[in-house]
Amino acid sequence: MDRRSLILAEAQRAGRVMVDALADELGVSAHTIRRDINALCEQSKLRRLHGGAEYIDGSANMPYGARAVLNAASKRAIASAAAAMVPDGATVFISIGTTPAFVAAALAAREALTVITNNLNAAMAISENSSHRVILPGGEMRLPDRDFLNRQAIDLFSAYRADFGIYGVGGIDVDGSLLDFHEEEVRMREEFERNSRATILVADKTKFGRRAAAVGGRIDEADCVILDRRPGAPHAGLLDGLPGELIVTSEQGTGL
């Protein structure tokens, strides 16, 4: 990802960015960061603040390609942990999003799975192993994300019973509410809950505090939550007393 895409991704995650902090993080001069911010402001992606800029549209998701490379190593670790829970021959729901697509790629090593998904990237990843059965909804494919976010997709998940429902999320609020960018994503997550024997929420650290408009479900409703690392304040308390299993991949093998 280029530097301006990284700046935009951080602004979307945190709501705002500061010039000096970005210069230190990215190893360039403050003048270079100001030039990047000015260019993003001219594209109406950021709005100038004293010493930095704020993200303008907190209700829109960033492009799939940018999300796919953001924290890719962390997402692979999450995917490996999720795939380890799924035995050969299982039936699996996989939601839209980049982290679920990483899970699908990890699941390609399993045998004879039945995968129901509205995520074409996940479907293509899992199809690398021809022993799997892949079921997709019909209708118009949403670009550039390559997914199906329509009535057919919601109905598809209501027509099957899965052993595992693996889903991502747009953001996690301070009260534990799950946020997404479209109401249809919330509806599909509800179908996952109704029609999966076990649900697995996969989320990297950028999802804590990330803003999105549609709300539905809570982090403590998942049977298993897989994170790359624990969130800091004010979200740290969300992990206390989770009723389901919690896996933090950065702590695996450390004895913690």
What does this structure look like?
By secondary structure, the protein is an alpha/beta fold. The chain contains 9 helices and 13 strands. The protein folds into 2 domains: 3-55, Arc Repressor Mutant, subunit A (Orthogonal Bundle), CATH 1.10.10; 65-251, Rossmann fold, CATH 3.40.50. The strands form 3 sheets. The protein has a 7-stranded parallel beta sheet, sandwiched between helices. Strands 1-3-2 form a 3-stranded antiparallel beta sheet. α8 runs parallel beside α9 (183-195). The mean pLDDT is 89.
Concise synopsis of the structure shown:
The protein has 256 residues and is α/β, with parallel strands linked by helices. It has helices at residues 3-14, 19-26, 30-42, 64-69, 72-83, 98-107, 120-126, 151-158, 183-195; strands at 16-18, 46-49, 52-55, 91-94, 114-117, 133-135, 162-167, 171-172, 177-180, 196-203, 214-218, 224-227, 245-248.
Key words describing this protein structure:
alpha/beta, Arc Repressor Mutant, subunit A, Rossmann fold, 35% helix
